[in-house]
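Could you show me just one protein sequence together with its fold in token form as a worked example?
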Amino acid sequence: QVQLVESGGGLVQPGGSLRLSCAASGFTFNIYTINWYRQAPGKQRELVAFIGSSIYTIRDYADSVKGRFTISRDNAKNTVYLQMNSLKPEDTAVYFCNVYVQGRAYWGQGTQVTVSS
């Protein structure tokens, strides 16, 4: 059974940092691309960053977070991280990790990130 569990969200002041974690289980973690999405109130869910399998070390980011966010993975721990620096109020959202396994999308429960003074 595929499971994704996000953690690390919270309240942070503008300019601050947070590191989100996505712990995965139930599939062969190291061969799958993992995505981070976010959804702000009243807005559509948007792709923030993705990281390819350990074979293809590709990663990319939404323009809005390039240079501020870094995605990484630890295959020994079946975990993907999203390091978020220089946070802005517009980064406030629920952040979800996601994986497609055999054509089916799996989502975690999300973790709330609030950037406010």
About this structure: The first strand starts at residue 3 and ends at 7.
